[in-house]
Amino acid sequence: MDNSLPSTKESENSIPFWHDPAKRAVVYQLATLAVVGLIGYYLFSNTVTNLHRQSIATGFHFLEKEASFEIGESLIRYSAASNYARALLVGILNTLKVAFVGIVLTILLGTFVGIARLSSNWLVSRLAAAYIEIFQDIPILLQLIFWYAVFYDSLPAPRNALEPIPGMFLCNRGLAFGVPEPHPAYRYIAIAFLLGCVGVYFLRKWARKRQDRTGLSFPVFSTGSAIILGLPLVIWLVLGAPTAMDMPRLSGFNFTGGLTVSPEFTALLLGLVLYTAAFVAEIVRSGIQAVSKGQTEAAMSLGLKPWQTLNLVILPQSLRIIVPPLTSQMLNLTKNSSLAVAIGFPDFVSVANTTINQTGQAIEGVALIMVVYLIFSLITSAFMNWYNKKIALIER
Amino acid sequence: MKSKKYWAWLFVAVMVLGAGMANAGTLDDVKAKGFVQVGVNGQLAGFGIPDEKGEWKGLDVDTGRAIAAAVFGDAKKIKYVPLTAVQRFTALQSGEVDVLCRNATMTLTRDTSLGLDFAQVNYYDGQGFLVPKKMNIKSAKELDGATVCVLPGTTTEQNVADFFRSKNMKMKPVVIENNAELNKAFFAGRCDCLTSDASQLAGARSVAPNPSDYIILPEIISKEPLAPAVRHGDNQWKDIVNYAVLAMIEAEELGITSTNVDEMLKSTNPSVQRFLGVVPGNGKALGLDEKFAYNIVKQVGNYAEVFDRNVGPKTPLALERGLNALWINGGLMYSPPFK
User: Can you tell me the distance from the alpha carbon of B122 to that of A1, in angstroms, rounded to the nearest whole number?
Assistant: First the structure.
């Protein structure tokens, strides 16, 4: 065979393209792409024509129309005179509220139970195991309905509300408690709090560096909490220590004033947290167990205390194993929050359902629901991926 | 690769075929299937709910049976699909059901933008409030600040917001999709009042732990003409659904009941003769058997029988005829002549 360059080129040229695997693959991929595009176009145009023929309204113009329905709880100002776009925004914020609070509580509870599961105390580890088995194995919808029923069935009416501590009322309309009345001082207190957090962040960085350099440890935790709590307290005292409270009062049917946490929100939060924390606990347990026992023994033999072993040796290593599956549990919690429709919490799906029904534009409504949940999920996983990268083992 | 492409084309072909089939007339589809698929409530006593033996009962259920009797001469050729308020119109639009007999209020927007048509009203209703007696409330105007239990995806949700807005009062809705769950929350005291169509409130009260503890307030804040609905654009099917309901009303006016309908075949009254198909014409015009009205009355009954059996004074709902009486008795039930 002649191996000179020009002849190779010639022989390549002589191969018809359908015998060249590389070119053939390109052709196939283009064909597949074309078919997918055609199907997509067909589905879209078919839907539009059918909707038109059945004289069903299309488009997103309905978003500007007056919603004319009330929503039970809202983080922003909303009334029946607002438009559908604002109603949907209220729903999105309600979903974010329950997802955010839920994720924070789930991680705390899940870590706690996961560590308890490994406790050398027989009773503690058995209790944690029982908790995990029970809450993991009951469908979340049943748990939600159960907690909701517990709230409205066992708590008294507003007129006979329980008052566990003065100024706090517990009844079947929710938990009402006092909040400080608006005062200019609170703005400065919030700024002081944020400044404190930033300060502690840099303090921690400095302490790390110093420890690496000199081996001396610095009590970051106690100094840090003193700064974060102390700074706002000082500002509060300096600005005249306002103590006026907006207390809940019984007027007419219900409590007005103060802040009320509804049974729907509490039941949804409780159901989601207890359910998801059971899964998180198992993830934390397996993550800790995946770190070889030799690490613990080595840390102990260096004279580290048990909590230092856990905090400085075991957790940093197990986090790398824990974070990826933890991400999918966070996503689960966010998506499961759409079960709120069953117990009357006005989350995004609930508001979108009402919108779909009043406007009849199911396709647009369902598309909105899908897009919003997709964005929630992408943001959550983007954040967790970033965190995962940050804590991943830096190989040198 | 090759087989993947093949499957994709097959998929497209099936889609085209499926789209083509959906265009055929509903009557032909129904006849080919051998039964009418009716969307019903499933949880509403008096209108659409299975009894303890699992048999479907209610005013809307009987409307569906009348349609089956008109099409097949057999009221049993029917399949029920229980739907929530949120699901119902989508189920009709997508062809999952042939007709929707699910206490749906006829409104201009629904009639025009949802791709459906409403047939003859089978119950004239209005929205009211159910409150516990011990609250000592006499009028809906005293409800300022109340927490209100309401079903989602209904005209009710809007009506109640409009009512409170127009009276400058505040309200807090609790919205639960499942009717039974909503009633449970209300009876447990989660809300101060339950709002819905008055007939539904009567239905809800009839399943309360202690029905006499609750009263329906006198105010009726809306007009709720409840009517069966069909897909927009199929005029023949709409006519059939329309005249199936009207046949029950006309039968009551002509004094024909399920017990005397066989005797009435011998009647010399030309209206009765035309109605029962003794003198043919009506059936052919609708594309149905000439005996369609006879079959409806024989197997389902006239409107009075259907009303009394499901929601009348002797039932747990104990509703009066009111607006639903015949026009000759001061009500709104009026059928055009069957000729």
Answer: 91
